Amino acid sequence: MDTLSIVRGITAGDQRIVARAISIIEEDNDRSYEIIRSIYGMTGHAHIIGITGPPGVGKSTMIGVLSRKLTEMGKKVSILAVDASSPFSGGTILGNRIRMQDTLSRYGIYMRSVSNRGMTGGLSRSTWNIVKVLDAAGSDFIIIETVGAGQSDIDIVYLADTVIVTLAPGLGDSIQAIKSGMMEIGDIFVINKMDREDSFFALKDIMDNVYERNGWMPRVVGTNSLKGEGYDDLIRAIDDHRTFSVAHGGKRRIRYREEVRLALSRIVERHVWKEFGKLLESGEMDSYYDEHLDPNTVATEIFAQNNGLSQGNSVERRVEF
Amino acid sequence: MDSFWKKKLEGFNTERKNEEYERWVASTLAPWNRQTGYRERKYQNSSEITIKEVYTKEDVQDLEKKLGMPGEYPFTRGIYPNMYRGKLWTMRMFSGFGTPEDTNRRLHYLIENGETGLSIAFDMPTLYGYDADNPRSEGEIGKCGVNVSTLRDMETIFKGIDLSKVSTSMTINAPAAILTAMYLAIAKKQGVPFDKVSGTVQADILKEYIAQKEWMYPPEAHIRIIRDMMVYCTKNVPKWNYISISGYHIREAGSSAVQELAFTLADGFYYVDLGIKAGLNVDDFAPRLSFFFNSSINFFEEIAKMRAARRIWATVMKEKYGAKNPRSMMLRFHTQTSGYTLTWQQPLNNIIRTTIEAMAAVLGGTQSLHTNSYDEAWALPSDGAVKVALRTQQIIAEESGIPDVIDPLGGSYYVEWLTDKMEEEAYRYFDRIESMGGILEAIKKGYIQKEIADTSYKRQKRLESGDEIMVGVNKYVEEGEEPINYLKIDKKAEEAQIARLREIKRTRDEAKVKKALEDLRRAMLDDNENLMPYYIRAVESYATVQEISDVGREIFGSWKEPVIV
Amino acid sequence: MEAGKNLSSSRPIKVLLAKPAIDGHDRGIFVLARALRDAGMDVIYAGLLPTPEQVVDIAISEDVDVIGLSLLNGAHMTAFKKVVDLLKERGVEDIAVVGGGIIPDDDKPKLEAIGVTGNYGPGTPLSTIIEHIRKRGEEARKKKEM
Fold first, then answer.
1. What digits encode the pLDDT tens for the residues B471-520?
2. Residues A225-234 pLDDT 10s
3. CA distance to partner chain C, nearest, from residue A201 (Å)
4. What predicted TM-score, i.e. pTM, was given to this entire model?
5. Residues B368 and B227 in one domain
6. Which chains does chain A touch, 3 or more C-beta pairs < 8 A?
7. SS (H, E, C) B389-431
8. For B171, phi and psi rounded to 5 degrees?
9. Is there a single domain that holds both residue B430 and residue B500?
10. Which of A28, A66, B269, C4 sits between 20 and 30 A of A317, alpha carbons compared?
11. Which residues of A touch C49 (CB under 8 A)?
12. What are residue C66's DSSP bridge partners?
């Protein structure tokens, strides 16, 4: 499929083409950037909600209910869920759909699962660009579920307009959150599973520990996903935060800066790897082996020679005693 | 509270130093091994417990106290004083297939041949609470059991059978209360008082979430229904065993023996808590709880598992729950040989596997036993294969001399050590589960399921690497063997069931159905209302299994499993 | 990251595993899911009791290369075919369908004829299944890139 058809399909909101476009974005090559370049003008409409929190607190179920409610209000919602890849094989089990599938099918909500491809921070490198596709496809809301490793899911702060930290009562979640710095990233805190006996203590723990940041006092909401309770409050909190963000410029500038920084780092990385490849091919490593030189000295020498450094010969090769 | 398991754990010392063993290894075994060589492999059982070459007196502790005598606390050696000298185990073979008429004929045949313990299996749609005419039921009707969509089907199954004279075991879980209601409705029609009605439903919903995955609602909703059934039957149907706590499916889902032991008993304790919370006296309902275990191929591990199960149950019922009646402390169990260990390759080998597993069950002191047929790896069992399976039990019972002595392996250093070890590992799991907020939380978080999936994947990898052997599968393989498949779909049962269902829907009193379902709905919304009378009225109005189940689906919603992979 | 390798990586083969009927026996599919992950693939498990419609929805939304269907209850002829028909209906030609479970020999050619390949029974080595899925996945990927 040519780029023009893809771009047209995206802007028409064609789910199949959106799906294919996301695959191309995930490949992270020239074609990916061509698509982003072509659709960038049509982005900027969506409100990006990041959902993070420790495993087992019911994030997926919550996203299912939230997206249903937003859809019923006439909003177009897209979901992006990130799972961690295996450090050994690079493969990933993408399991977040299971608990939302019935809702997705019934309401025709688009959801995509992606692997973090070994990145730390709770997102994948491609997440940023995938969001652009979903945005250009006309989403009012893009909900992103981070890996869910808890405290290390920090990148969402830069990407999302509104960050929701989800916790469950008991098991020390709230205490962990307070200790681990999650209090600093949430615009809204959700205590899910409010049917549990200890839920009010959890709610209180969090309420006692939120504080105003940059003019926004984080909201604390209790929900029960089974019964759908508390979601009106949650949606109101999201709406309030959105209004607040629009009025105060929000995170868009921060996000833009981060996006440029990431793009730049990618270019530098590519450049570095390319140079690295060249260096590897250039050196006659075996000849050094016979000289019994230490590896660090050899690397320094290869680097110096190939960069034409004038001091190339001055690398001290051996220390004699 | 949480110190109960920890305190128990302190009582174990299964890894203590055995000086005699160490001396023998250094002075006799090691030189011998060096000289003659030895088979290099990992000696481990399914529970990943490492097994030594030999066990001695020093490996077992407090033997007398932990063993007791048969029929005495803690029942390690068996729950009855005379065990199989009193009565052989019940050789219970599953029936229930095709149309209700087919099953009725089979039941009459069994009764004529002296069977009084009937056992009925249901098909998938019934197990999930779907009617025969639901599109999802297509191709499933009457396949792995009999189909029941309305009371009329149950009436047909039990036509000409006096419910006061038989005891019926029904393998049904999510819709167990509906099927119980149907059974009671038939008893009413026959004029059999409820205190004469006897039988068992499986109704172990926790193991559904763990392993078998057949549920309709979120766990809390099913648990409430089970609670209502417990309370209702404890008061009104005193011979109805409303829960058979099942490890079988947990094991078939790929767990180890220790996991089967621990998760099944943890489920059992949950139901005890449930009964107590519902206001029942522990001694009024605990004697009605029974268990269902798997017997797999590692002979001694299985025997140790069953012995450990009895001891744990007795100890915990007495010490934690304060049971006074010894019957509350007796763990009665049914056993089925493992389906997991059967292979389609060289199928006759399965007879040998089943024999070993059946022997383990008998040596483990089972109360009843189902032996699998050798062709079950690829088909519904044929008559000939079923007969061999039954004969296997009869040979063990009548020829082998195994049942003549109670707990003949009692006192074996290895078996006693392994029993201790399994018990200890089970307590370790109980402690961990409690620290997660209890078994229900552990299931909802997917912890239990993940533990099982991990074990199952590890075993598969061992099989692929050859660290674990299955004869005919990864060793002694015969070339050119192809799986034989006999699984057939008979559309006749499906058509007949749909036709019958339509007929009933056309002729029943709709107003009565509507009212019964509306009453049920209101009762469901009120947690203090016992649902059983409403279920009975609903089935009596010929509301269908799915119509009744749908009331709950609307109120409680459905449930999706946690992600565990 | 392997030294010297270009960052623009080839995306792993993406597989959807599903049991599209009333069949709760999920031991095998969990084992396979892990094995595929350990073979470097991206794996989505559809959860219990998805309808064939849901299976196809997921496959399209996730842009998978292979759908792996497994049933042990004998409903494969109806259920697998429904998935294939729905894919055709929606004009999807670049997703391969692979089957497994308890499938009688007589049914295998019928499934092959509608494009469901593999159809492995219990006891098949994981490596055989993985290789087959990889092969079909690479074919599908080529079609996608056309």
1. 999 999 998 776 665 555 567 888 999 999 999 999 999 999 999 999 99
2. 878 889 999 9
3. 34
4. 0.86
5. yes
6. B, C
7. HHHHHHHHHHCCCHHHCCCCCCCCHHHHHHHHHHHHHHHHHHH
8. -85, 85
9. no
10. C4
11. none
12. C15, C96
